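Changelog entry: the histidine kinase record was regenerated in this release. Current contents:
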Amino acid sequence: MGKLARNGKLSLMQMVGRMSIQLKLILSFICIILIPIILVSWYLFNDAYRKTIEDLKRTNQFMLEVEKSSVAGNVALMERTAQLAITNSTIKEYLGAAEELETGDLFEFKMEAFANFQQFLFNNPSIAAIRLYTENPHVMEMYPVIFQERRIKDKPWYDEVIGRNQMVWWDISSSPKEVVNDVTGGTQNGLYVSLLRETNYEDGRHNGVLEVKMEAGTFFAKTFSSMQDSHSQMIVVNREGRAYTNERALIFRELPLNEILRQFQLRASDVPDSFSFTYKGHPFLCIPAQLEGLDSYLLNVVSLKEPLEQVNQNRNTIIFATLFLIVLLSISSYVMHSLILKKLTILRESMKQVRKGNFNVDIAITSMDEVGELAYHFRQMLKKMNELIVEAVGRQAATKEAELNSLKNQIDAHFLYNTLENLKMMAEIEGQYAISDSLTSLGGMMRYNLQWTTNHVRLKDELTHIQNYIAIMNIRYDNHLELHIDVPPAYMDQEVLKMSLQPVVENAVKHGMGARHASREKLAITIKAYQLNDCLAIEVSDNGDGIEEGKLREVNLMIRLEDGEYRQLRSASARGEREGSGIGLRNVDQRIVMNYGKPHGIRVESVQGSYTRVTLTLPYLILTGGATAHAQAIDRG
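Regenerated structure tokens:
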């Protein structure tokens, strides 16, 4: 398989190689336009699809929350009505009577207490019926509220209500025929939501059942309303899995109610916040919400067909527009490339003549575009070729001479090292140990300067060089220099530019040993290193005379000036001012910036008469085995 893949790749490359430049340019032009358009369109269409779904989901979730809020209000209304019914003292006394009332007492009860109770309970028109069923044989039925319990013992919910011990039981059911006639003399047919609970005597014995009913169209106002969006419909699913809704809704022309129930039951064990499904190729979204007190679910089913068709229509429009644009641009590109490549053909024939040895070819292209410029440079190249042939011999001789000079320098360097070693041995034999130490330091400095094989060295090598430099300078200043190195071992392998610290230390010695410093005991130069975020800061500070504030600003400015501005300011300065303008520090800063970038470099701080501190900021890199790698984090504990 690997060999076949390599052969196929090679064949494709050969086929592309045999194509003309004109065809390659047209194909590349098409790819440059087509690929970004495909990627952008794919992203935009996915984003539009996602936003369409999210907008529909938010809208219908809001409608669902409105319906849930309405249902919660109706639940509270029915519970409040039920509570008023069972706590009425007159009615409780009548339902718990130990014997039948006399005719006069019964008539008085019905005309006054019962009439007032009935008027109070039915004050809210949303309540369809309030009924008290009692097993007390001494209670006479009073339409339409008080009935004997035997009328409901065949109801499917009766045993469940009795077994709940006065806890509320909600029932959603459709009744073709009610147990009693309503006050108008007809029968109440249709779908109702019923609040049912057991009632007891004062001693806790079972007395009967309370029923508060509300029509489902009132209880679930939006679910059974005909004013819903034509693309969505709410459905109530009770605990038995039966569905109740406005079956005349338009959505059921595309999606049967049984299919909705089937999709919901597939997810009944772990009902999600929302889910989508397809039926006969059409997408739908279902958003369920639990009605906890009713032990039921309210579903909002949304058809995605029309919204997504609009998204697809927009996609197709963009695709057709893109194809048209590609065809138009391809034709234009073909014409333009034909004109350009005609000039390139002339140039190609001229090159063939040159390959045969004819260096006096004249290219007849006078246009000022890129091809004309290419022809001009080709003529110049022909002119230059003869000059280069002559120069090649001279360059070869110069190379040989450079190699000889390099060998001579090496010989001279070894001669100097050997001479210094002999002088050192003579000084030690004579007991001149100060001279011997100075020669050792001088030899170390010479080796460090002459053996320049790389621009990058370890910090410890640069510090060794500084120690040699201070040792030699102490001869000049009669040991008035002190060098303190405060660098943790973990930073000794830090990468630094070779000879980047000496100009800074040399500057400290030169300016720190001022006239007024002669009265002091010693000039102390301290070198510190510490990590600063992802960088390493190296501080070179001295307790010398410091720098006047105005001069300090000028030095920091000159360090980072552009070359043109720097030369102008430097040429305008007096000679003495130029010598103190920080050219050494500027050179070090420029080397650091060239190697590591502008965030790194040099910063000078000073207080006149107190101290001067130069901080070099470098990337935190460790030299290991000659290769540069990012340092491991150091334990700061």
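The mean pLDDT is 78.
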